[in-house]
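Dear support,

I submitted the protein below through the web form. The confirmation email said the job was done, but the results page showed an empty box. After a refresh the structure appeared. I'm attaching both so you can tell me whether what I see now is the final result or a partial one.
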Amino acid sequence: MPLKRFFVFLVCAIAANSGWADPTYEKREIDRHVIHIVTIPPREALPYLVKAQEGMFGRASVSSCARQFENPIAAINAGFFEIDLDADGVPSATFIVDGKIFGADIRSHSCLVIREGGDLEIVPCQLEAFLTLGSTRIPITLVNRTIRQSDKIILYTDRWGTQTRTPHEDRIEFSFDADCHCTSLAEHGNNPIPIGGYVVSLPKEKVPPEVLQGERSSIMFHFTFGPHFVPHAKDSWIAGIPQVVRGGKVTDDIQDPRMPEHFRNTCHARTLIGLRKDGTIVAIVAEHRASLDFNKMSLGEVRTYLRNNKEILSTEHQDQIGGLTIDQILTALRKIDEKKAKIEGLTLQEAAEIMIGLECVDALNLDGGKSSTMFYKGKTITDGEERAVSDSLVFAKAAP
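What the results page shows now:
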């Protein structure tokens, strides 16, 4: 893909505007790429992680999250999340706001960390959490997740809600206070979560008999997020997958085999956050618009597409819309799609090279695809209908 010209444009833009002191926005259209770039000098705005609906569950648009602030400067979508009836909007990776844990990933990964004073860092992160029962040490496998496999050992924090909402039968649950001291044991699921505390839920067969018989002194719970995490701090953390730039160079993480090949090497809409050496924040959103397969669209998706393109359809068929056959509608839809310019997103390699071209020493890939959205000074500047997301990263002068 011919991105060299794109990089030249970026470098020239940086050189020409090296004296910028205010947040800036650029839209770059090179070949089939459309990339939105927001640059925020140090201390020109404070970063805030905003969880939709202010709770574990639920989603909201990036623009609605941004508008909670007075005169927000910019906002982008942030973390990866679940789309499910019983877990819609639940963060699927590390997500911590002001020290409160909504989600955590047990795999090694990198996070954007918002320090208590507003400084940003991109740091390696890995949850180490385990339950010790006598001589048995049991690693925790998930944090704040719905049980879909009965063998999982899950840590629940009070961000999950007041109850664990786990199956009543065949579970043992240990409750801990904020200092990780065991306060109770229940031989069933769906137990209260202490305010500021934790519950560890596990299958009954994994608990040693002496513990069930009343031995409590050997029960311990430990967790850490690695050397960069200070427990009980007011920092906020958001996971990115993967870190694409580290120390000014493209990382090996972009070809991590744990990620699907198409995620790594196929063009997608992307959202990335990067940091320059002087602390300047660089946020980009790359759009992606491919030809649609209308035969695989749901009726609701077709209705939305027709509604969004009503003017074009009316021009083509004037007053005949209500009498069109399915074949005629499909033909009209394809004609509309052909008129829309195709836009190619980025592979992870291309995304990393662009962030280096923007002088970032560290950069992180955030949730992308249909979630990729950028808001700047009062309006959404990315094309298309906004998707409701789990959380947003908002830059503003002051908290709401």
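Response: this is the final, complete result; the empty box was a page-load delay. The longest strand covers residues 33-40.
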